[in-house]
Write a structure and sequence with these properties.
about 475 residues, alpha/beta, Fumarate Reductase Iron-sulfur Protein, Chain B, domain 2, FAD/NAD(P)-binding domain, 3 domains, 5-stranded parallel β-sheet, about 35% helix, globular
């Protein structure tokens, strides 16, 4: 594949990011792009490794060695066709995927994996710019009608494939614009919303019907949809946030991360004025509780809102700089991750537990924390507080970024009386079918909060199962 000795001659070269002093003044995408020649050289590093562990680790089964080979040879169109054979939206995953494929790349043994993620987004962007991507409506319609509820990555993927198969698909979204988590949860500096609109416009031209501003279960009942459609796919995500129950939680100035991020995205899109944003970090001491990607997004957004200072804490131990012995290649490397937002200015602390929120005049002024130690006991990690380690972190804006636990049960799920699993996610069988006939489910509403690429994979799977169901019926 590609140049079998390319990895010996060409060093890994990343596109890099916009200058820090420039990017913190706007919400435009941070990552830059390489020129076509350099990108083809990077593709040449994809070696003839025999076993493509990159392919094995990819949730959507991307044919990575194949499209890297075509990219190296300059066949951009062929590379795009291989890429979209397994992934509906490479322009999304190429920007925001954590790239487990690169962690599994054979060259990652020497910590210089192929730039797979950057190659992916370069291929799809070339395809758009060169006009390879055009609307291709299905030649024939089956007459079967499908409702997809939720327009996040899983709902979009399911709707896209079902529409291409020839079914009449209507995509329902409760918000003003489609895109779900992609539009309202991910900051513009990671994923421009023009990228989402470009894809949605293509899907509409291919015959997909999108109805926004409709909260199924409230504006229209699930039973009405059952009467109107031959199959229903629920892809509403896991939007119930994990809360932090501690003394002082009722104080003003404590918000869930997604509320904070969504409001800034609404400002960026012109749906809300900056002065009308009720959660603004300008001039404030911000404390982000939670060390994952959502917490990182809160850091970058707070910096762009001109926060006085930003601190991020995590209850788990600080990850190592290199793989631990029990975390070997080709598994995903559980190592310290420093995002572009962290580079922009942020104090980070690990192994810190929140004890209580402190306030004055009913507004938060700080958070009392204490150091914790993690010990292994009977194969499990046990957290123990370290005596005498309590202290206060000053903060007048606290953002809770501790993830999401399950879909919101009230409304549609309770109306349809769908069976839930022990974690309160929608329970499905091996065919993605729920406890109710005609109703399927996919994405985070089934698995719990996960990655965008996993949601796309789930949406693709449920689309195939719904297609089989409809053709049998």
């Amino acid at each position: 594949m590609a140049d079998v000795t390319g990895f010996l001659k060409i060093k890994r070269k990343e596109a890099g990011n916009r200058p820090l002093h420039e990017r913190i003044c706007d919400h435009s995408e941070v990552e830059q792009t390489l020129n076509s020649e350099d990108r083809m050289l990077q593709a040449s590093r994809c070696m003839d490794c025999g076993v493509p562990f990159c392919h094995w680790s990819c949730p959507v089964d991307n044919l990575i060695p194949e499209w890297n080979d075509l990219l190296y040879k300059g066949d951009w169109k062929g590379a795009y066709m291989r890429l979209t054979a397994t992934n509906n939206f490479p322009e999304f995953t190429g920007r925001i995927c954590p790239a487990s494929c690169e962690h599994a790349c054979v060259l990652n043994i020497s910590q210089e994996p192929v730039t797979i993620r950057e190659n992916e987004v370069a291929i799809v962007e070339k395809a758009f710019s060169e006009g390879y991507i055009k609307p291709v409506p299905p030649k024939n319609r089956t007459g079967k009608k499908v409702a997809v509820i939720g327009s996040g990555p899983s709902g979009m993927a399911a709707a896209d494939l079902l529409n291409k198969t020839g079914h009449l698909v209507t995509l329902f979204e409760k918000d003003e614009k489609a895109g779900g988590l992609l539009r309202y949860g991910i900051p513009d500096f990671k994923l421009s919303k023009a990228t989402i609109d470009r894809r949605l416009d293509l899907m509409i031209k291919e015959g997909l019907i999108i109805r926004t501003g409709i909260n199924v279960g409230k504006d229209i009942s699930g039973k009405e949809l059952l009467e109107q459609f031959d199959a229903i796919c629920i892809a509403v995500g896991a939007t119930h946030p994990r809360d932090l129950i501690a003394e002082g939680r009722e104080l003003e100035g404590i918000h869930f991360a997604m509320d904070f991020l969504t409001l800034q995205n609404l400002v960026n899109s012109g749906q809300l004025t900056a002065t009308g944003n009720p959660i603004n970090a300008e001039g404030k001491k911000v404390l982000v509780i939670g060390g994952g990607d959502t917490g990182s997004d809160c850091v970058g957004t707070s910096i762009r809102q001109k926060a006085e200072m930003v601190t991020q804490i995590e209850i788990l131990p600080k990850p190592p700089l290199t793989r631990a012995d029990n975390n070997p290649w080709p598994y995903y490397g559980k190592v310290l991750k420093t995002s572009t937002s962290h580079e922009e200015g942020c104090e980070r602390y690990w192994s810190l537990s929140t004890v209580k929120f402190i306030g004055a005049d009913n507004h938060v002024t700080g958070v009392e924390v204490e150091d914790v130690e993690w010990k292994s006991r009977d194969g499990c990690l046990i957290m123990e507080a370290i005596p005498g380690s309590r202290r206060t972190i000053n903060a007048d804006l606290v953002l809770l970024a501790m993830g999401f636990v399950h879909p919101v049960p009230d409304g549609l799920l309770s109306e349809l009386e769908l069976e839930l699993d022990q974690r309160k996610n929608i329970k499905v069988d091996e065919n993605q079918l729920t406890s109710s006939q005609k109703i399927f489910a996919a994405g985070d509403s089934v698995s719990g909060a996960s990655l965008v690429v996993n949601a796309i994979a789930s949406g693709r799977k449920v689309a195939k199962e719904i297609d089989i169901f409809l053709r049998k019926s």
